[in-house]
Amino acid sequence: MNKLFTLLFILNILYFNINTFSNEKNNIIVAQGSKPKSLDPHTFNEFPTLGITEHIFNTLVTLDDKGVPTPELAESFEYISPTEILFTIRKDVKFHNEEIMNVDDVIFSLERMLQKPGSRVILKDIKSVDKTKDEKVLITLKEPSAPFLANLTLPIAAIMNKKYVESGNNVALKPLGTGPYMVTNWGDGDKIVMSSFKDYFKGAPKNSGLTFKIITENTSRLAALETGEVDVIYAISPIDFNIVEKSPELNLLHKTTTTTELMVLNVTKDGLDNENIRKAIHMAIDKEGILEAIFLNRGSVATSPINPNIFGSSQDLTPFNRDIETAQNIIKSEKKVPPLKIWTSENIVRVQIAQIIQANLKEIGIESTIEIVEWGTFLKRTSEGAHDILLTTWILGVSDIDTVVSTLFHSNSIGAEGNRSFYNNPELDAKIDLARSTIDSEKRKLYYKEIQEIILKDNPVVPLVYKIDGIGISKKIENFNYNKASMRNYYEDMKKVDAK
Question: What 3-state DSSP class applies to 300?
Fold first, then answer.
């Protein structure tokens, strides 16, 4: 009997180890360049957070590949008037603690979003959120809003568990959602470990889990992909594309994006408060040089802050071409510009862009220094207006222009909500409000062209490059899905071919 017991014990240990090893082999590991500030989806409208939380939570509606809003946590939706949308909520959706999502969770989440600076800007059209007698959610808008449904698809509009949040749980560290993955360990933020949620309403993921590793340096991320430490990396430096392409173990995906590399000018700072000086700065920037030297001509020079893949983008604007002599004359005719600080995150591509811009500014008589700021500090201090110039990428998760212009340029969004140029133009505000309340798409395009012309004239930002994203993937990975309209990645169907 003792021998039988011993044998059974050994078999159990072997079974456990085999399954554990198998699960580890079928865990998808993704590397990104910055730590999330929080795993609370309503708090920060920035990619390092939302690129993770979109796998923990779901939204009422999502985007299909053509950029059309379709039901997700909502079973259906209908406009019962131009300002009233009725949502029927799914009854078969579980949170990670096995509680069933209900109408109260949806209403709680929407009301919570309206109180958070990160999410408030995309839902500011809401007048009220009510529960109907037949257990549906009625959203009433202040006025008609063409981009409203698209905004609801953003990861920042995630639906949360009311009871869990109100019970005092720290959702920033221990989020609870309805999504395909559950957070099991965060530690110090350098590695976020998630296990697959078997009761996910769209079907259990094909893999055992998802791990995000934070590797700040581009070269280190690439090395981790080459050695098999990670399975997927994003934002590969164009100079490294050939390395991935030549590797027999890796695939390189080239994806057109909805992103624009931007140089943001704080218009409240001495020198930058002068429209002529901002114009001179724009004319000094060697966009072609940046595209060639940093992006190896993979992409195109930006003429508008709005990427051409976004509805409403106007590409027939009259840009400020590079003209060093004219820019020098403008600077000489104005009051002396004090030395400027160029802030950038630790992203090496952005640091290299900063170095070119620093040389460009020197050509027209403006001295500057480059400050590399840790991501969390970068977000906080730029929202307070501590910077002179900052370099950033605007990554859009919807295919509608409103999210860009309302967030980056409307005076209601100054500071933490996204307008880090601190630009305030009542004429532009009125145009943006008119455009978002107009349902006719052709009229909206005309309004948005006028909006982009005002932005170009006033120069609160200098658009630099529309880039192509390089994604490196191990050839062991199958079923990588990428939504071209939202630039979101869906890992639920992914698996490793050598995983048993």
Answer: strand
pLDDT tens column, 44-81:
777 778 888 999 999 999 987 777 889 999 999 999 99
471 vs 137: CA distance, rounded Å:
39
Question: What are the residues facing 393 on neighbouring strands?
Answer: 261
User: Residue 77 and residue 137: Cα distance in Å, rounded?
Assistant: 9
Number of separate domains in the chain: 2
The candidate with the shortest Cα–Cα distance to 303, out of 336, 261, 269, 335, is 261
| CA 307 to mean position of chain CA atoms | 14
| 292 and 388 part of one domain | yes
Strands (E), 345-388: 368-372
Q: Note the pLDDT tens digit of each residue in 291-344.
A: 999 988 888 999 999 888 888 888 888 878 899 999 999 999 988 899 999 999
Residue 366, token pair as written in the block: 């403006």
Q: Which residues constitute the domain of residue 429?
A: 260-468
| Rounded Cα–Cα distance for residues 124 and 359 (Å) | 41
pTM: predicted TM-score of the whole model, two decimal places = 0.74
